[in-house]
Structure formats: C-alpha cells, structure tokens
Amino acid sequence: MEIPLDLKLAVRNVFRNKVRSLITLAAIAFGCISLIIAGGFFEDTFLQMRESVIHSNLGHIQIYKKGYIEKGSAKPFDYMIENPDEIEKLISSIEHVELITPRITFSGLMSTGENTVSIFCQGINPEGEQAISVIETVKGATSGLAIEAGENLSQNDMYNVILGRGLAKAMGSKVGDFIILVCNTVGGALNAMDMKVKGTFFTISKEFDDRAVRMPIAAAQTLLRTDKVQTLVVLVDKTENTDQVKKQLLYLVKDKDLELKPWYELADFYNKTVELYGRQFLVLKFIIAIIVILSIFNTINMSIWERTREIGTIMALGSRRREVLKLFLLEGLVLGILGGLIGIAAGTVLAYLISLVGIPMPPPPGATVGWTAHIKIVPQLLIASFSIALISSLVSSFYPAFKASRLIIADALRHF
Fold it and tell me: By CB distance 3.0 to 4.6 Å, which of 108, 168, 212, 414 could disulfide with 200?
C-alpha cells in the first residue's frame, strides 16, 4: 500500500528542525508516561483497597432478612434469618459462588475484671471466615484479616475469642487472658460468658480493630440464646462477577423474605476514596493535555513562520487553502502519533520496572496497615493516554494551520 504524498511531506517537514521536534515529542511522551504511571498507581491502589475491604470483613454480598437494612441497626434481633442451612444450599448452586458463611453481629460489654468497655461482637464460622480472608494477588496469597499474636479461631473452638489489636491494647489483654462478655439476649435478658483470648488480629480498618471481638457462631448463639443467624456472607470467585451473582440471588430470594447488599454499597470509605482520586486524575489529564497543546502549538507556529515563503510558493503554484490546512494538520497528527507511541512504550516499560520493586506506602487515613503499591498496566489507560496525545495534537495544530491557509500569497512571497 503506497503512503499518500501529503503524509510523506508531513513526516519530512516534522523533522526539518530535529531539535525542536524532538523536544515536542519528548513533551508528548512525558505526558503519556505521566498518565500511565499515575493512572496505573491509582488503579492498583483501588484494586488493593477493594480486595482488602472485601476480604477483611464485608465479603462480596451480604444477605439479610427483609427490613434489616432499614431498621436492623435499631432492632437487630427482630430481623434474624430462620433455617439458614436451607438458604445456603439454595445459594451454593449459583455459578461463581464459592462460599456462604453465617454471621451474628451484636453489641455488648467486655470486662477484664478491672476495665469494662463497649464492644462490637461477631459470631462467625471460623472455617468460612478464613476462606473469605484470603486475597489472591499477583505476588501470591495474602490475608485481609491477619493474626498479629496467638492463633486464629478454629472449628473446634467454643469458648475462645480473638480481639482486634486496638481493643486488646486498650484493655491490656494478651493471648491466654480470660475476659467476660456481657450482652442482652434475643429475648432481652442479660447474659454473660467467660471467654479466653486465643489471638489478636488486624485489618485495613482501624475503627473495626479498635472495637471488634470475634467468637465462634455457636458460642454467640449460646450467649444470645438463639439458633438463628443475622447475616449470610457470600464469597464470589472473582469480584468482577459480583453483579452477575447479585442478579441471580435477587431472583432466588425474591420469595424468601430476604434482601441483600453487594460490597460496593457497604464500602463507604472505598467509594469516597475512588471518587477523590478520580477527580485528581481528571485534573492531571487536563494539565497534561494543556502541556501537549502548548508544545505542538509552538512547534507548528514556529514552522509556519519559518516556511512562510514556502507556503506562498506552493499556493502560487496552485495548491488550495484547504490543502495547506491539511498539510499542517497532518504534521501535528504525526507529532501526536509518534509522541503517543513513544510515551506508551516507555510508560509500559517504566511501569513494569517500578512494579518489580514496588512502592512502600504508609497506612491511609483511618487504617493501621501500609501496603506495597505497584503500577497496574490497564489497556483502557493506554488507549486514553494515546487518545489524549492525538486529540490534543489536532486541537493545537488547527489554529496555526488555519492561519497558514489564510496567508495572502503576495505577502507570503515577500516574507523574510
């Protein structure tokens, strides 16, 4: 396939002044690299935060008795799920569902004999919760809920608990110590149980770690005097399949007097963080676009000034104004394409090299755990970077090209 003559001329004209063109290409490439690195960093941060939130506490989908979402915070024991085993069997048949595990959550008091503090208790199935806590990453499996001291709960435990590390520190409780849990039963009576601290844990959420006590669900049911559960937590094979599973669940439970919420409706901090970073990245895109526009505008404008007599000559020889306009637009387009391709190639390589090392990050606000950030290479981000370079090139080239096409032939030929 033969290359059009206009395109050949545009390529040659771009490299007439090699130094200026290389500086322009460097500015465009640097803009693309900046977008790829910054966008990849944000994407990796979102991914790690999302998976930590899901696997530390929320799961992918939570199922409740109808009315719990609206009124359950005031009357949690009025909205308990009956026959949870039957519902678990029904849900387990859905494609992409890996696990369903029950929970009971309630408030109470924890006493060490000397100190008493208000706590948030979770009655859990230890085996199910350990499966939820595993996060599969490129670097291997990590845990969304990590044991800091002692051991995690096991299936055979009955009178053992694990404490959030903030709570354990505040109460001065260590592994092997005994505590007293006090709460109201489902019927409203007061009940208490002696428990042994088996371990301490931490998650991404400092607020959760400062108040949380986890205990076997059998012990929680005994303490509350009930055989029901409050929540069924569903784990999906991939987070991207959450909405697909949600649709099937809504169909299955529509006649079961149940309701549900996916993780993204429960993760308020995550949603606000994504919104904040998204706006920051939008500002960065705008700044990069302005840099590219000014760089190419300057290059094309200087080229027109240097080639004014040449423009007058080709117009005198019969070239139409739209052909002159097209020629300079093509020069801007060539700069955008070359700069964009160089930027994408360099940005991808740089992202890969940075990810090999990792970027140690401090704990975010409200958290106690730092993480190692990487630069996630996202195809959509590469396309967006190239598109910004291309569109900015055309936009910045239009006015100088239009100005060149409006030159008066006699004045252009007399230009020095």
Answer: 168
